[in-house]
Amino acid sequence: MTKNPTVLKWLEEMKELLGPKDVMWIDGSNEQTEALRKEACESGELIKLNQELLPDCYLHRTNPNDVARVEDRTFICTTKKEDAGPTNNWCAPDEMYKKLYNIARGSYNGKTMYIIPYSMGPIGSPLAKIGIEVTDSIYVVLNMLIMTRVSPEVMDVLGDSNDWVRCLHSRCDIDPEGRYICQFPEDNTIISVNSGYGGNVLLGKKCFALRIASYQGWKEGWMAEHMLILGLENPKGEVKYIAAAFPSACGKTNLAMLIPPEYLRKKGYKIWTVGDDIAWMRIGPDGRLYAINPENGFFGVAPGTNEKSNYNALASTKKGTIFTNVAHDLSNNTVWWEGLNKDLPQNANDWKGNKWDASKFNKADKSTYAANPNSRFTAPAKNCPCISEEFDKGEGVPISAIVFGGRRAKTAPLVYQSKSWENGVFVGSAMASETTAAAAGAVGVVRRDPMAMLPFCGYNMADYFQHWLDMGKKLGDKAPKIFNVNWFRTDDEGNFLWPGFGDNMRVLNWIIDRCEGNADAIETAIGYVPKPEDIDLTDLDMDMDTLKGILTVDKDMWLKECAEIEEHYKKFGDKLPKELREQLNTVKANLEK
Ligand code: OXD
Ligand code: MN
Q: How much distance in Å is there from the Cα of 275 to the middle of ligand 1?
């Protein structure tokens, strides 16, 4: 497959360390994929689903102790602790290599070592990067075949270059005590042991495309962000692109695949999905910021996905999809999850493979659920009915607007535009979301999640903020405009005041109008909010007063918010860029005016 000396040397080392009985290069061919699916079905690793209703679809169950990313066992291993920063777990590389090699040594005994050469981004694109993952899991191979571009061509593009990411995964004993997800950004290396769950083992995704890539972007002058990318087409056929970052449980996949309200569809408005989770962005030859989605599929949360909440995501799962930890509907050999529809399956196995008793289902008690709350689908992006024509092109799409957001019941208005790039970086650095009843722990607790990158930034977050400021300086007046949205304002009874979902398009239209200089705004202490009459309420059962209410900026609440941001900034100490402190002081002064 390759003569690249750095690749051959590393693979020899891996073979020596892991002790497989044989080695198989993954080539992405149908024959090989089919043979691996068959083998996984024979061993019980996969269940073949109803091929008429769900062609090429399979079900997999992970160990019940291994159903989510493990942030407390995720490490950034840089020589200097300071380079990992206050928001990451850190360990010295030497010590961590030793520990992980001891865990992984001999762990492929009697097994095959699968070698997956993959490209993040269209193969050969100047914005793409290459990785090689070795794994002992067919489930990982089959998921990587969906989530990344796997092909011998990847090795041709790499040639003799050393610019590739080394990714070692070993299931070992799926021992939670020995589970580690470690990034070594200085060596372009990732090691993941004792897990078989997607986010921990599909090493092209969070580990490479965010943690390692954010570090590479810092060193090389580009950006790897936890952002969806969408194209908004107007009736003239012009498409403008938006990149948006939200913490989990804020509807990122839904926004990426939004269906506009009927009156806008009739006028000819459309949304095109470029990506639902990750954006790699570089300054293009014309000085604007261009983005690609480095992934090739969607690793989406299944529960709550239905025809209404996200028609396009559901449609994406109808062929070539691997479902993980959902319920198995035995009546027709398909899958089910809470929120798919109201028909609780009467003859089903739950996500652990045990007979499910629908009569015991209690919405308030997750232990009675058929699907794990973090159950997933791994679906090819090309299945998505609204996938953008640009998705597979390597040049990337020019970004007009960057949107941050979170779930805030009272504080943040429906939408506001930051006053400058620097001000926008301040907004992103202070991003926060309130916990919901959907997650364990107290409800309504504010968690700061700068740029939605808290678990994914592969270096010191203060340096990351500085990198954002530096990118803005390079972009100058070509920089995208930065906005913040909040779909989650509630009344005093906790009812949502904004309809959300497809109606968010009304806000996206204002955002694009602002970028194009076609809409006015009202200046507030924190940024520009829309004039209420500029948010189109056609066909909506909403009065102007409610809209005005969710566009307000409450002085006392924002002074409290500023105090909390001050607290949040303390953990970065002297490394916090002075521009951000200045921004905070300006907002405070504006509020007190
Ligand atoms: C994801 C996440 O799975 O952000 O995309 O946790
Ligand atoms: Mn994500």
A: 13
